[in-house]
Design goal:
With 262 residues, the chain is an alpha/beta fold. Helices cover 19% and strands 23% of the residues. It has one domain: 5-stranded Propeller (L-arginine/glycine Amidinotransferase, Chain A).
């Protein structure tokens, strides 16, 4: 088997997967189930893809995992670094079958390696900022998964830092990066002590779910449901992009969940 075709490294790529018609049966942990309007969810997902393209990403659209209700939340299946792609071991059985399809695509671009049971880890628990990789120890990611990630990345000189995640499904529901020095964080949902050394911007009390923002090249994208947070980030970063993903949030999804950027 030859080396993967890595293509043009100067162009940001984004893997996405179509919204499953079964999304109403998605896994939920921290929110109550509400009816999901499938047509609206699909439109919002289409707008999300357009937003990625607007900011210079080459979008790779996948289908094939429609039998998995959560399959549009591709982030949880892989951790992609400059050097390798690490295929995840999801923390719930209903999501484990999603990984193979994503690996088939990623293997065209990167060398792939695996984390396997009994270790569990999901991409939504992994926040890379420079050479630091924060990993949420959560309901979906266990200590063995974090140790496996540390082992797989040690040769590339990443620093893997475990973060207790208690109030949200994934770490990135509670903290994401605005830039390489600044983190947007809901301090009530995670232990912020491991984040020392970074500038911390706290989510407004009225918008606890707003900590998940998405960086696409030089843009920071914010959910339209959180105007206070949007204003806060605009004052720090400058112009931002705002997008409505309210229907997909009913599936406990957020902005970073719906793409794998590399």
């Amino acid at each position: 088997m030859g080396e993967p075709d890595r293509g043009d490294r100067s162009v940001l790529k984004a893997i996405i997967h179509s919204v499953s018609p079964l999304i109403g049966r998605c896994e939920l942990t921290f929110i109550e189930r509400e009816p999901i309007d499938l047509e609206l969810a699909i439109r919002q997902h289409h707008d999300y893809c357009a937003m990625l393209e607007r900011h210079g990403a080459a979008v790779i659209r996948l289908t094939g995992n429609e039998s998995y209700p959560d399959s549009c939340f591709v982030e949880d299946t892989a951790i992609v670094l400059d050097e390798i792609a690490i295929m995840c071991s999801p923390g719930v059985e209903s999501r484990r079958g999603e990984v193979a399809l994503i690996e088939r695509e990623l293997s065209k671009h990167k060398e792939t390696v695996h984390i396997s049971l009994p270790s569990t880890i999901e991409g939504g628990d992994v926040l890379k900022v420079g050479k630091t990789i924060f990993v949420g120890e959560s309901k979906r990611t266990n200590a063995k998964g974090i140790e496996d990630l540390r082992r797989l990345t040690g040769g590339f000189r990443y620093k893997v830092v475990s973060v207790e995640t208690r109030g949200s499904l994934h770490l990135k529901s509670a903290v994401t990066s605005i830039d390489d020095e600044t983190l947007l964080v809901n301090k009530d949902w995670i232990d912020v002590e491991p984040l020392r050394g970074f500038r911390l911007v706290h989510t407004p009390a009225s918008e606890p779910w707003s900590a998940n923002v998405l960086r696409v090249n030089n843009a920071v994208c914010v959910q339209s449901s959180f105007p206070e947070t949007a204003e806060l980030i605009e004052n720090i970063h400058g112009p931002i992009d705002v997008i409505d993903t309210s229907e997909l949030r009913k599936a406990e999804g957020s902005l970073t969940c719906m793409s794998i950027l590399f």
